[in-house]
Amino acid sequence: MKKTIKKTNNLQETRTSNNLTQEELADKVSVSIQTIKSIEKGKYKPSDSLAFNIANSLNKEVTDIFA
């Protein structure tokens, strides 16, 4: 069974605890800053691959960021 990622996330807290700006994270995962903003606000659900890339960039497990 494929695991899906829910809308709830703590991306902003995780990103700031890693001392990254939205722009820096966006650059790391090759998306626009608007994408990061939308994910943080819960307006956009990232694809599984993007969620894994974000988690990797922050040295976290996907489930640590996206509940």
Commentary on this structure:
By secondary structure, this protein is an all-alpha fold. Helices cover 55% and strands 0% of the residues. It contains five helices and no strands. The radius of gyration is 11 Å and the shape is globular.
Q: Secondary-structure map with pairings?
A:
Blueprint: H1 11-17, H2 22-29, H3 33-40, H4 48-57, H5 62-65
Helix pairs in contact: 2-3
Distance between the termini: 17 Å
Number of strands: 0
Low-confidence runs of at least 5 consecutive residues: none
Shape: globular
Q: How many helical elements?
A: 5
Q: What does the largest sheet look like?
A: none
Which oligomeric form is depicted?
single chain
The Rg value, from CA coordinates, equals 11 Å
H-E string: HHHHH
Q: Considering DSSP H and I runs of 4 or more, what fraction of the residues is helical?
A: 55-70%
Structural class: mainly alpha
Average pLDDT, all residues? 91
Beta-strand percent range = under 5%
Short description:
With 67 residues, the protein is mainly alpha-helical. It has helices at 11-17, 22-29, 33-40, 48-57, 62-65. α2 crosses α3 (33-40).
Keywords:
mainly alpha, 67 residues, globular, 55% helix, single chain, 5 helices
